Amino acid sequence: MSYITLNSSKLYHNFTFLEDLFSQHNIEWAIVAKLLCGNEKFLDVLLNISDKEICDSRLSNLKTIKKLSPETTTIYIKPPARRLAKSIVEFADVSFNTELETLKALSAEAVQQNKVHRVVLMAEMGELREGILLAELMEFYGAVLQLPNMEVVGLGTNLCCLNGILPDEKKLKTLAQYKTLLEKKFGVKIPYISGGSSVTVPLIYRNEVPEGINHFRVGETLFFGTDVFADGYIHGMYREVFTLNAEVIELSEKPRVPSGTAGTNLTGDTPAFDQSEYDQTSVRAIVDVGLLDIDAKNITPMLADIKIIGASSDMLILDLGENERGLKTGDNVEFSMNYMAVLRAMNSDYVDKKVVNVLSGAAISLAENSN
Predict the structure, then answer these.
(1) Residues of the domain holding 84
(2) Is 165 within the bounds of a domain?
(3) Where are the beta strands (DSSP E) in the chain?
(4) CA 56 to CA 154: how far, in whole Å?
(5) What's the pLDDT tens digit per position in 22-75?
(6) pTM (two decimals)
(7) Residues forming the active site
(8) CA-based nearest residue to 14, from 31, 36, 35
(9) Exposure pattern of 166-179 as b/e (b: 16+ CB <10 Å)?
(10) Looking at the 3D structure of the chain, how many domains does it have?
(11) Residue 199: beta bridge partners?
């Protein structure tokens, strides 16, 4: 069975890297853990490393987090469906909202459960995904203030996830200005502006995060060390917290070009072949992972001389060239993975999940004291 590993020590390094960065700029941050898909092994690692708020967009995952760590603050980070109001109030300490009717349902449920439910109002800043139009924000906020058992703890925005609209200083300043206007008009204090996500982290280095933006939500950069803004990586962070391992189930020298009439394959493509390679051969390996579990475009063999030829539903075909490394049936091949590859593998019941380089609570304590 193929498996994905989470490297606990690398994740801890990335966590402390971001913790130092944010603390230097008086920014609080929450971890977006939806990538882990509620896997208890991996959530245990995260909760052992961090005391931060945990964000997710799936209620079942928040329920798992509350089971593992009842004291952890959980945040539901997409506009809730009204039918889920009972569970949102039960398992999410905070939710991100854009619809007044949904907020009314959450308010009624909070009264029923004798809780104060905290909310962040998400503003539309040009990405055209979720968000309240700025022209409607004042009236919207005033209406929310009338709802019992509700506390608005922040304004937020989401950028780059749908149309790729990048955050910039002007957009973030506008969001901060609206917070000031709301506070003056209604005589309230709004503690947080959750204006940052992984894509906003590089703006810290460029001193382009305005005063008042004091809360970030970070997932991808924590797990992959990515500079999402520039489509690169942040120096000093680990890229390969996750690794895919797949076993070689067949290894043989075969022609480079198939024979016969080519039709469409299972993905609907008709592959083209370089006929100049017609009389050439190479060593090919088949490993036990396929399109049900991964997208071959989103993984990369860790060994540079291995190339991915293609995949079927449950097998991945590799070109080993002359197999100078002497790989044999039963050996494992390692792959690096991007965000979408990990997300897909985490959703597959056919890919096992393992933790490596486990940091115990004592080890974390020692690491903290050495910093």
Answers:
(1) 8-233
(2) yes
(3) 3-7, 28-32, 54-56, 74-76, 94-97, 117-122, 150-156, 192-197, 215-218, 226-227, 232-233, 242-255, 281-287, 299-301, 307-311, 316-319, 332-337, 352-356
(4) 17
(5) 999 999 999 999 999 999 999 999 999 999 999 999 999 999 999 999 999 999
(6) 0.92
(7) 34
(8) 31
(9) bbbeebbbbbbebb
(10) 1
(11) none
